[in-house]
Amino acid sequence: MPELPEVETSRRGIEPYLLNKTIKKIEIRQHKLRWPIPKNLPTLAEGQKVRGVYRRAKYIYLKLDSGNIIIHLGMSGSLRICTSKTPIEKHDHIDICVSNKKILRDPRKFGCVLWQADDINNHKLIKSLGPEPLDDIFTAEYLHTKAHKRQCSIKAFIMNSHIVVGVGNIYASEALFRSGINPKRKAGNISLSRLVKLVNAIKLTLKLAINEGGTTLRDFTGISGQPGYFAQKLLVYGRNGEKCTQCNETIKQFTQQARSTYYCTQCQK
DNA sequence: ACTTCGACCTGTTGGC
DNA sequence: TGCCAACAGGTCGAAG
Q1: CA-to-C1' span, A49 to C15 (A)
Q2: Ordered domains of chain A (ranges, CATH)
């Protein structure tokens, strides 16, 4: 489900409820997510103050004095703020309780909740990640160097978290459309000037989506259950058979790396 | 070193 | 209306 804008929307949503608050209790109903939630997480975290609510790639982490709680929402996860009266539903796997409760809900269990005792960047899942797309170090020159002689498609390339993080299936199609690049084109076969357009398109698309509270296709919601409004502004994703907003050509869909890609054959070369 | 692909799990959708 | 296959926002890790 969530790509970077949806994760950032979730982070911004929970931050005011958790920052500088003491974790009173952690209640785990379902340990079996993508990786098991550590059995001793309550012992490690209860009684500590939340010093920061951060995001790295699609991971949210809560910085405590003795370590970090790392949360990934997987494909279908969401976080919400609840009170003690909020009914617990089927896929509400873990509560992190301060004065209110924060609940991780994750129907498909592709997400995870983990503990990292020291610097978050030492964590196995995080240390090999590429740069943040909205960071200044993510440039066309960087992409150009990384793409040298790469045979994979440009879409697979920008979705590879070792190259750049946070670009998922929706925003990959959107950014490639905005930069006029055919998703099938080989990554190593794109000029620097076109990569300049691509990098700008990735940054712009993600920023616009964050401003809209993310994209709700079927079930993404912010912490209060509200949808994101960027779905209304998608230019190609999910629009196969419809007209291109720029040239009136019909938007096409095809499968790439077992994921749906949407593009305009006229605008993207 | 790079690329592809299966696996994880549940809910929803669309075609017959 | 009902059933069942196909598909869904992620990404690791094995295999080629």
Answers
A1: 45
A2: 4-122 (3.20.190.10), 140-263 (1.10.8.50)
Residues contacting strand B at CB < 7 A? A 32, 34, 76, 90-91, 107-110, 150-153, 156-157, 187, 218-219, 257-258
Burial label for A124, CB within 10 Å (0-12, 13-18, 19+), is exposed
Q: Which bases of strand C have any atom within 7 Å of the beta carbon of a protein residue?
A: 7-13
Q: What confidence tens digit (pLDDT) does each residue in A69-87 have?
A: 999 999 999 999 999 889 9
Q: pLDDT tens digits, residue range A195-242?
A: 999 999 999 999 999 999 888 887 777 888 888 899 899 999 999 999
- pLDDT above 70 covers what percent of chain A? 100
Model confidence band, residue A121 (pLDDT cutoffs 50, 70, 90): very high
Nearest to A114 by CA among A145, A151, A72, A80: A72
Which band of pLDDT confidence, cut at 50, 70 and 90, is reported for residue A1? Answer: low
Instruction: Report the sign of the C-alpha dihedral through residues A43, A46, A47, A51, in that order.
Output: positive
Residues 6+ apart with CB under 8 A from A46: A23, A24, A25, A26
Q: Strand B: which positions are within 7 A of a protein CB?
A: 2-13
Å separating the CA of residue A96 from the C1' of nucleotide B14: 39
Annotated active-site residue A155? The verdict is no
The CA–C1' separation of A115 and C14, in angstroms, is 26
Give distance CA A207 / C1' B7 (Å): 33
Please tell me the predicted confidence (pLDDT) of residue A132.
Answer: 98
Cα separation, A45 vs A100, whole angstroms = 16
The nucleotide whose C1' lies nearest the CA of A163 is: B2
Per-residue pLDDT, A217: 82
